[in-house]
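Subject: sequence -> structure tokens, single chain

Hey, anyone have a minute? Need the predicted structure for the following. Not urgent.
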Amino acid sequence: MAELVDLSIPVRHGEGRLGLEVAFETPYRFEACGWRGSTFSMFCHYATHVDAPNHFLADGNTIDQAPLDKLIGPAAVIELADHGRAAAISGDALEDRGRHAEPGDIAVLRTGWTDACWGTDRFWREGPYLAPDGADWLVERGVKAVVYDFAEEYEVRKPGFRGEDCIVHHRILSRDIYNIEYVHNLAAIARPRCTIIALPIKLVGLDGAPARVLALEGAELPTRFSIRN
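Reply:
Had a minute. Here:
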């Protein structure tokens, strides 16, 4: 029987990063009108989300232009649980652990860091990160997207970081590889291969969007899709 694993981090009012808080409001309430209707606002790059290329590339595609076939498909889970506090994930480590990753796969980098530290400053300041040669390995392997349970860019832990210093994002996004960032619950994936489904909200013109991200085990989806818009 096929099993679905929800990898999406819950989002709550008052959370956030970089001084941008999640805000929930309920302007329509049962007491006033007999039904309930709420609003929310949040930073597009908080909690589980997908980066669009224009997050770091001025002329890159926006999130509403993200091809869904880049965000759905076969995935290789690369075990990196020994990469904890301040550990760089190198190309050599990925070559050693990720030989089952195939061109066109979604690479899932599993460290367990979100499960250990999400909701604390440690998640942002002290976690493992992807070394530039690790980004090169992903590009050379020909993956179409990468799933992370840690903040992969070392530079973003520095106050006032600048986009041009974010080597990892530039190397990956410039090759039309999509970042699926800040998932949790990767330990629930039991096999080295699965199917990933990542569906960002279709926010026109923006540089990323919150997403519901799932792993499917015990069933295979087609590797190629015909998308109808």
